[in-house]
Amino acid sequence: MKIDPESNADLSAQIAQAIRDAIVSGDMIVDERLPSESELADQFGVSRSTVREALKRLAAQSLIRTQRGAFGGAFVNRLCYHDAYGQHITTSTLLLSMNDVRFETACEARYAMERACAPLAAQRRTPRHLSMIRKEIERQADAALSDEDFCASDVALHRALVDAAGNPVLSYQLAGAVEAMQPLMNMITFTARSRGEIVRLHSALLEALADRHAGRADTALHALESYTMTLGRDVLAARARRTGAP
Q: Choosing a second label site near 168 at 20 to 30 A (CA), which of 43, 80, 201, 242?
């Protein structure tokens, strides 16, 4: 593991990257103990405080864990999909908010990825997944449900659809799509949408999954996409008219 002292990049960031690369490449394996701070400081020719900052960066990415005691130190962590969801969702949310992603772009991407899950979800869904989706539909049919809770229920329903595919890699990749893109779309469309229509479309999706009918599940998602796209365009056009934007 090496760093470039002449580089403009922060030394702690370089050290963190070097250790990360060693972990990703398999040169350092799960549960392997890292050299001590003193050893790393000597190896990289930096101060212990710089090494300590690098280790903090790695711990924040869940790549290492630390433990105290006679057999303590820093160890390569076993990263699981569940632990990585939060970081993935945060990154996706920041990308969307900072890069002015168009509504139609986000909608298109999200539904394209969700439809990839539909055939697997129809095949692999369990009674638990169906129960989760049914529970959210019942919540959405409650007229007393607040807009905020309706949006949260919407996210939970689609997350259950994704998880029903039974593929942890898909679930991880779609965590950002469902839990970052969908709230963005909800913020734009919630004032104009018909809850009754959404409940109807969600119910059609549930029935297709219950019947293990991939084609009908895909049709239901296409209908949801079309409805969401239409709502988004109408809302954004109305805003433009109010503000006089071209």
A: 201
